[in-house]
Amino acid sequence: MKRLLALMLAVVMITAAVLTGCGSGSAAPAGGEGLKVGFIYIGTPGDVGYTFAHDQGRIYLEEQLKDKGVTTAKVESVPETADSEKAIKNLIDQGCKVIFATSFGYMDFVEKVAKEYPDVKFFHCSGNKSNETNFVNYFGKIEQARYLTGIVAGLKTKSGKIGYVAAMQIPEVIRGIDAFTLGVRSVNPTAVVNVKWTNTWYDPQLEKSAAEALLNEGNDVIAQHQDSTAPQIAAQEKGAFAIGYNSDSSKAAPKAYLTAPVWNWGVYYVDQVQKILDGSWKAENYLGGMHEGVVDIGPMTDLVDADIKAKVEEVKAKILDGSLDVFAGPVKDQTGAVKIAEGATMTVEEQQACKWFVEGVNGKID
Questions:
Q1: Same domain for 109 and 197
Q2: Which residues, if any, are the signal sequence (predicted)?
């Protein structure tokens, strides 16, 4: 009888545990190990690009808050499909109470999972969806840094033709091209930025082929919104110059690399996790800039002349003191029509919906 009662009690306890774990729709507790933070990446940190920049932010988060028991977990090479939903739930099952989903295409899946797990906080990078409780989007004013790198390209080009290898035809990429071109034309009014789309975030072979095509068409500086260093390598092989993206990738193409717009994601990650720890966190969308330190222009190499560096620093100071908004009007589109009137600037909502190129861009948006 005692054995029977013990067996029945064990069955009841196991059943209760299963029901608690599967039926509540909430994350498992961290189990006394402190706050665990999960990250999902579209690529791998080894790309020295977009994912690398996010992973540097994750590492910085651990370093800054390790004394407070913060740990992290990550899942790499997660496609922008329903697989991202599985990856998020896997991290939650591991005890993560905070999730950073770092690519645009994860947005709808994050929104769905956030409804299922109300006690987990979700952060989605570069999107435009959120709620008022546990799901926010975050990004930075990378257009500020892109404008500055446009100045470098505009003063460095000899042909007046600058190539741009672009990933997806979404507002984030389009307004980046626009900001870069405005920077180019602020110092070289007749220069043209020629765009080729790859329609992928990360495909080194395709990125390099697009860059090679631009180089063969006479572009002597190559810029990019891509995750790999392949366009920079292509530029080096052709004796041209390159503007990178996401992080300092000068080692990949030292004879071509000039500088890059770079991300410092750790600034935001530490701020948000600290607020969660001290109980002051609110569900607020974020768009930080150079002033907050989340974006910047990377170190300019010795291939950039001293007078160009001085010009960049002069304009950077104006961005930092608020006297220059890179999207301040008047700004015309490709047809010559005024899109941003004098005295006006693009609102955040307009930037998130931007589907037009500024004057000076040679490219099409489908």
A1: no
A2: 1-27
